[in-house]
């Protein structure tokens, strides 16, 4: 199986596990004292956690990070890549997962349930949201925020629109990031300067194609941007 398909298949499995986990947690909220449901919740946590970190690992390897390794190494690399924002929480999840073989102990059982309820749910929800975005156009929140920071430095830019393969969802890990800039003061020279700024002053592993929308002569490209483009920035000042 190709790396592309492996990551997508893993994400689909994670999504299934996440949905099942959500249903079990809903049952737990209705009957929190039911020991059978408590055990089911812990089993759902185990399965969802395993699926989550393996999905992160496969995605990171798909995105160019080689030999990511075990769950701890995966968390470290995922944080560096901007895929997660709470590495401490995920490290705590690893530790808690290692304790689940002792849930016959009432104290461990209740500690695990408390961790699931108070810490794991927001962690896994955030990962699910981030992976859904990555599935859409291949940029994490952190990467997108870095791009927007550079765009916002040019007050002439009124809107920035992501287009091309990333907007269509057909991108590869190394696909260019195509951005069209709108605004009365936006010129081809400005678009070139912005592209240079991003490529030279960040560590984003992509090439950028930045164009001034008003200078595009290709009507088909204009229509693609208007119809399929994703608005990633608007100057509200």
What do you see in this structure?
The chain is 64% helix and 9% strand. With 237 residues, the chain is of the alpha+beta class. It has 2 domains: 6-136, Nucleotidyltransferases  domain 2 (Four Helix Bundle (Hemerythrin (Met), subunit A)); 141-234, Beta Polymerase, domain 2 (2-Layer Sandwich). The protein has a 4-stranded mixed sheet, sandwiched between helices. Helix 8 (188-201) links the parallel strand 2 (177-182) and strand 3 (208-212).
The counted number of beta strands is: 4
In what range is the share of β-strand residues?
A: 5-15%
Strand order of the largest sheet: 3-2-1-4
Q: Looking at the structure, what is the overall shape?
A: elongated
Query: How many structural domains does the protein architecture include?
Result: 2
Going by CATH, what is the homologous superfamily of the largest domain? Nucleotidyltransferases  domain 2
Main sheet attributes: strand count, strand direction, barrel closure: 4 strands, mixed
Low-confidence stretches: none
Count every helix, treating DSSP H or I runs of 4 or more residues as helices: 9
Q: How much helical structure, as a percent, in the residues?
A: 55-70%
Kindly state the mean pLDDT as a whole number? 91
What value does the Rg take, in angstroms? 22 Å
Helix/strand/pairing class, anyone?
alpha+beta
SSE arrangement, N to C: HHHHHHEHEHEHE
In short:
The protein has about 240 residues and is α+β, with helices and mostly antiparallel strands. The chain has helices at about 5-30, 35-60, 70-80, 85-100, 105-135, 140-150, 165-170, 190-200, 220-230; strands spanning about 160-165, 175-180, 210, 230-235. The protein is elongated, with a radius of gyration of 22 Å.
